[in-house]
Write the C-alpha cells for this entry.
Amino acid sequence: MSSPIAWNYYDVHLFMLTWSDSLTENWNVYANSNSQYPPLSTYLFIAFELLGRATANNIFVQVTPLTTLNWIRIIARIPLMAGFFASAHLLYRRWGWSVARYWLFTPPVLATVVLAQYHMGLGLLALFSWTSVIPLYTFWGFQFELVTVPLVLLACYSLLDEKPGRFGAYLALGAMVKIYPIILLPFGIARFGRRDMLKAIATAGVIGSAISLPFLLSSPFNYYYQLVGFQGVRFPQGLSLFHIPLLLLQYDVAAFDQIGFVKWLWQLVWLPVYAYLVLLGWQTETDEALILALGGALLSMVFLNKIGNLNYFLWFWPFALFALDRGVISWRHPTGIIMTATSYVLTMQTAAAVLDEQVLIIQELKWYDARHLVVNSFQGVVQQSMIDKLAYLNTNYGWLAQIVYSHRHTIAVVIISLHLVVLGDLLRRMVDAIQEDSSMSLQRLREWM
C-alpha cells in the first residue's frame, strides 16, 4: 500500500537513479558512477528499476491516478518486500509466532494512512506499531538492509546447525548486499573445528571474490574507495556518539576538521567490545546465548559506529526481538529506540521542511533545502497533498517548528544521549544474559588447538 507513495529523494533521485543511466557508458557502475553499495544491492536496484521503466505503460497506471514514477517505486521495492516477508517467515519457522509478530505487527501504521488525511497529528498513531516501525522506516527510506536481514538469519541458523559451508555462503552473499554481515564470520571461526572453520572461510572467500573480481579488475581504485575508503573519511552523522562534537560546533566543518581523529576514533572504542563479544560467543554452551552474542556484536557496531542512520538499527533488530520474547530485554528498549529515532527525524529534518529551511547532508557536507527534499520524495500521486500538509503545518505550528529548528543542535545532543543510554542498556542486558549462560569450555579449546 505504501510502496508507490514516496521514497528518499536524496538517496534515490540524486544517487541511485544515476546507476541505470551510467550503464550506457560502462557496464561497471563503479567506474563512472557513485554507488557506495556492494554489487548485489547496486545491480539488484538497477534490474528492478529498469523493469519498472519497461513495464510502466500498463493498464493499472492508465486507469488510476498513479504516475510512471509511482509504478517504478512499486517494482523497485519488490526485493525489499520479499526480504521483509522472508525475514518474517524465517523468524516464524525458527523462533515462533511470538517473535515474528513483533516484526509484522503493522495495523496501526495502515490505519494512519487513512487517519492522517483528517489530521496530521493522527499520524503519530504509527508509533503504536512499536517494533515493526524500524523495518518500515527502512522500507520507506529504500535501504537494502531488508534484503540483508534474511541472509543474516540464514547464516545464524547455519551456525547453530553446524553447517559451515552454508554459514560462509550466506554471510558472503549478505556482505555483497551490505558489508556489515562480515563481522559475524569470526563467530564461525571460533565455534567450528579447524576443518569446518576453513570450509566456512573458503566458501565466503570464493563467493565474495567471484562477485567482486570483475569490478576489481575493471576499476580497482573506484571499487575499493566507494565500498571502503569513503566510509573511512566521511563525517559522523545521525544518532551516533561521534556526531555530538559536530553538533556542539553547530556544523562548523572547518572547526571539526581540527579534531578529525573523531572520524576514526570509533574503531578503537568498538574493537575491544566486539572482541569480547566474539570471546563470549566462543564460550557459549546454548543456542540462546550464541544468538544473543551474534545480536550483541551487531548491536555493538551500531551503538559505537560513527554513522547513526535509522536503517542501521535493522542490523540487530531480529536479535533484539528474540531477546524481547525471551525476557532478556523489556518493552522499554524498542520503545526508547523508536521514540528517540522519531524525535531525531522531527528535530533535524521535519522542522526544517516545515519552515522551508536548510539541512546539511553530511555525506557531501553540502546544504540542501529541506522542503525541496521532502516534497520531491513524494513525486507523483500524493505530491500536492504533501505540499498542502507542509503549508498547513507552517501556518499552524510554524512557531513550534521555529523553536525546534533554532535549538536543533542542542535538542539533537539530548536525543542522541538518551538514545545511547537505551542502546547501552540493551547491550548490557544481552551481555549479562550471555555471561549467565556461558562458561569456559576447556574441551572446546583442546579441540580447536
Remarks:
- Residues 234-449 form one domain.
- The longest helix spans residues 408-437.
- The CA atoms of residues 108 and 218 lie 48 Å apart.
- Confidence is low (pLDDT under 50) at residues 440-446.
